[in-house]
Design a protein that fits this description.
Chain A: InterPro entries: PspA-assoc_dom. Chain A: Pfam families: PspAA. Chain A: This is PspA-associated domain-containing protein. The complex is a heterodimer. Chain A is globular, with a radius of gyration of 13 Å. Chain A is of the alpha+beta class. Helix content of chain A is about 45%, strand content about 15%. Chain B contains 5 helices and no strands. The chains are: A alpha+beta, B mainly alpha.
Chain lengths: ~90, ~220
Amino acid sequence: MIIRIIGDGQYHVDSALVDSLNVIDNKIVEFVQNGDEQEYQANLAALIDTIKQHGQVVDDRELIESDIIVPPADMTLNEAREVFSGTGIFEG
Amino acid sequence: MSKIIDKMEDPRETLDYSYEKQLELLQNVKRGVAEVATSKKRLQLQRAKLLQNSEKLDGQARDAIRADREDLARLALERKSAITSQITGLDQEIAGLEKEQEKLVAAEKRLSTKVEVFRTRKETIKAQYSAAEAQVRISESVSGISEEMADVGLAIERAENKTEDMKARSAALDELIEQGTLTDFTGGPDEIERELAAIGAESSIESELSRIKAEEGK
């Protein structure tokens, strides 16, 4: 699966990793709903770190569309309210 | 984007049109990167001016001690203390912009490569043109590069918003530097924070005063 981190380019991520990313994503949705800024930011950073650590950078010479787009680490809680709603950015 | 493609009769025209748009956007991105670099330079210049003021005040405090005017020395050191905290604030902002600039330069490079790849692919598709096959390849290439464009465009927009804020602060700083005085115009700290900061500044002024006195043999 191809994931884009806004401002950071695209990453090839193994489908096996998606479950653990989804767990973090669901937590973020919860923290955004509760307005818990600190936990929201910590988990967004964890989500981005996990993708960067386990994913492989997509070559600059590839022109492909992403399956999922992850917001940048400095996104504020207010901006995040629109992105992290419902099931979050990962399904389920 | 696919709607535009469908409307076009010849996919080769779509490719050329899309490439022209990409070049225009790439120019915008380059301007955005330059703007962030300019903002950083401006802050660095202000930092240098503040440092100069701080050294001047230090010299004035020394002169005042030599002339047995502790009250004047204290005033100079109070001003120096305010300037020092402004310098610390600027250092953080400069570091922030530096990081932002590095990220934007990397994004611009990535985008340039992708635009170049698109250009090559466009020429290949045009050369081997066969309508149905070309449509599929065009859709893939165009949506891939559009996403990249949107991503880098957003990164530039965020950086520009941040520098707008700094520009306003920067203009205020310029004015204060010219007037030779500095007050805390950043707002924010409440009464308690201000009191605590004043106590901290006071004790650092006292220790600096004793140091200068000792050095001047007073």
